[in-house]
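quick one before i forget lol
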Amino acid sequence: MSSSDFPVSLPPSSRLLSSADFHLLADVPLVIEWFANIDNPQTQRAYRNALEDFMKFTGIERPDEFREISRAHIIAWRDDLKYRELNGTTIRHRLAALSSLFEYLCDKNAVTHNPVKGIKRPSVEGYLGKTPAISDYQARGLLDAPKDVSLKDKRDRAILATLLYHALRREELCKLLVKDFKHERRGVTHLKVSGKGGKTRYIPLHPAAGGLVLDYLEASGHGLDLAGALFRPIRNNRMGTLHTAITADMIYKLVRKYSAALGFKIGAHALRATAATNALDHQADIAKVQEWLGHANIATTRIYDHRKTRPEDSPTFKVSY
């Protein structure tokens, strides 16, 4: 299920609907309409997986069958997720996806109530993030991992530095344009970052990362293409045939490859966790870190604050007899 499930796909320049197209759009099921309103690709994928799992479990084949769902169906599905040994966070996310759909259906008067409301969900397993932050030594090793002077190595070093020094999400890095790397505010170069929910934030560019990005742009030759993607695939790039941005999956594989070669295998989100943890460990204000990360809630930022759990800060070492 995706926005491509819409029965009519019109180019942005189209101004008029034919009578047939009008009636097709009028008949779009609300379930498809709800899904098409989800902008974030990661949220789309997670919600699609949750919905497909629920439909498979209940045997739903048509959108109108959601009207027949009761609390008993939801509870049975939740218990089945537990039986399949999915972790508590995953179960909570899947129930949240289904609840979002039913809230939309309620708003449209397609159902009378949200059957997910009141269903007991697995408890939060704690406020410490599960994504591991790597050590300073490992971070330095990762930055030095691309050894050659090829265009690919210059690009990869620039990507790793941008992630480690600015705590970007993969999707945010993919959206960066060349001009987003050249914003100046109060005499300081900033990155213009398009975050979740269409929110834009400006992050001061770290000099170490800035130098590596400039090296990459000089080698790639697309530094003057201000409206073009900043980080691009390498093959045939010098010939100007590739203008699309690198994908989130490519970034994940890139981080995975270099970290595995160094003896620790991590995903790209670990670099975001590392940057956040490092900033907090060096006494960055947590409210500033929240803004830096683009978090809507400061409780999410606290996941990366490990200062209270450091053994050296324990009252144990304050005891003196």
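fyi The first helix runs from residue 19 to 26.
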